[in-house]
Amino acid sequence: MTTKKKDRKRKKAGSAPGTLQHVGEKRNEVARIIVTEYNADELSERELHSGQIVMPPADSGTVTWYHIYGVHDETLIGQIGQIFNIHGLVLEDILDTMSRSKYENYGSYLFFILKMVQPDSILSHVQTENISIIVGPHYLLSFQEGEHDIFQPIRERLNAKKSTMRTFGPDYLAYTLLDLIIDHYLTVIDRLDERIDEIDEQLLMEVTPQTLPALYQVKKRAMVLQNIFSPHKNVITELLRDETDLFSKQFELYLRDVNDHINQINESIIHVRETVMVMLDIYLSLVSNKMNNVMKFLTIIATIFIPLTFLAGIYGMNFKYMPELDWPWSYPLLLLVMVTTALVMLAYFRRKGWL
Questions:
Q1: Which residues, including other chains, have CB under 8 Å from residue 244's CB and lie 6 or more apart?
Q2: 273 near 150, Cβ under 8 Å?
Q3: Distance between CA 255 and CA 239 in Å, rounded?
Q4: Is the separation of the CB atoms in 171 and 96 below 8 Å?
Q5: Are 144 and 32 in contact (CB under 8 A)?
Q6: Which of 104, 208, 211, 350 is deepest in the core (most CB within 10 A)?
Q7: Cα–Cα distance between 257 and 71 in angstroms, integer?
Q8: Closest CA to 264 of 223, 233, 303
């Protein structure tokens, strides 16, 4: 099976920088905005319309998290850009769902793009979703393509009684979102490992025509996954190196833990690819060995029949004077010689270990 091809809209060549044009899979659903406001003691969550978005006051003592479902709404993205004074190039990147993962510091806010992989899609096709995050001094904006709530575990942690998350600012919220996105890849790797184990068990029992396509499928998924995931390493590395007041140094240890997960995932992807290559070698060796056994069996059969064919050929000649033809026991004697010859050759082959 191959990666699914979707009806995608691409940016026109020669467009001016900062042009607000959605790039990616065509969608018709209405974009939704969920705003979550919280501090150490209180939390509120509600859905907004596009005209209700406002810049939260800096002295409110709360963190405001705007989560936008559906980045195909160019008008909505433009309105958010005006309200939060977001650079046009950032808005262009948010609308471009085919852009690579990256991190940029715009002074008054930090901008992230990460790709999230759906674990359930990895064995049929690699389904990714661009997640854009903007971290301000007292607010956070997150954008996703689809309608499903990928950050539901984070919301549950925020809604928990005496949640420590609510005592921190938007930088810690950004860390939890980054960590959740990266951890999704661990689930994907587990799915690939399970598939490899299934193929390995099948390979040890019997080599079938379906084994080779299955191995190439896993190999292709691992290659695509590596291309998608590789830029995430630079995102966390650049954030750790960046001297910004928008991300507290007290969370540097948490970011290093995310960086360790990234290294682990990269190593796991490489391990998957190497394992598949080893299994391909084993498969080819088993197929070759099976073919050699078939050829060996056919060669032994042909070798046994060579002298028998020789004898049959001699007495199949149309000479007039062949005295053996007049003997009454010539036919059974010839059959006895043929059977004896075959048995002697079989015994010899077995003694040599060829059978």
A1: 105, 110
A2: no
A3: 9
A4: no
A5: no
A6: 211
A7: 30
A8: 233
Domains present along the chain, CATH in parentheses:
8-285 (3.30.460.20), 288-351 (1.20.58.340)
Q: Phi and psi dihedrals of 143, rounded to 5?
A: -130, 135
Helix (H) or strand (E) holding 253: helix 252-314
Work out whether strand 63-69 and strand 102-105 pair parallel, antiparallel, or are unpaired: unpaired
Task: Find out whether 136 and 109 touch, Cβ atoms under 8 Å.
Answer: yes
Who's near 154: CB < 8 A, 6+ residues apart? 165, 173, 176, 177, 180
- Are β-strands 110-117 and 102-105 bridged in parallel, bridged antiparallel, or unpaired? antiparallel
Number of helical H runs and strand E runs in the chain: 8, 9
Q: Which residue type, as a one-letter code, is found at position 145?
A: E
Selection from 238, 260, 239 nearest residue 251 by Cα: 239
- Token readout for 225 is 């996954």
Q: How confident is the model at residue 123 (pLDDT cuts 50, 70, 90)?
A: low
pLDDT by residue (tens digit) across 177-197? 999 999 989 888 888 888 898
User: In terms of pTM, does the model score above 0.90?
Assistant: no
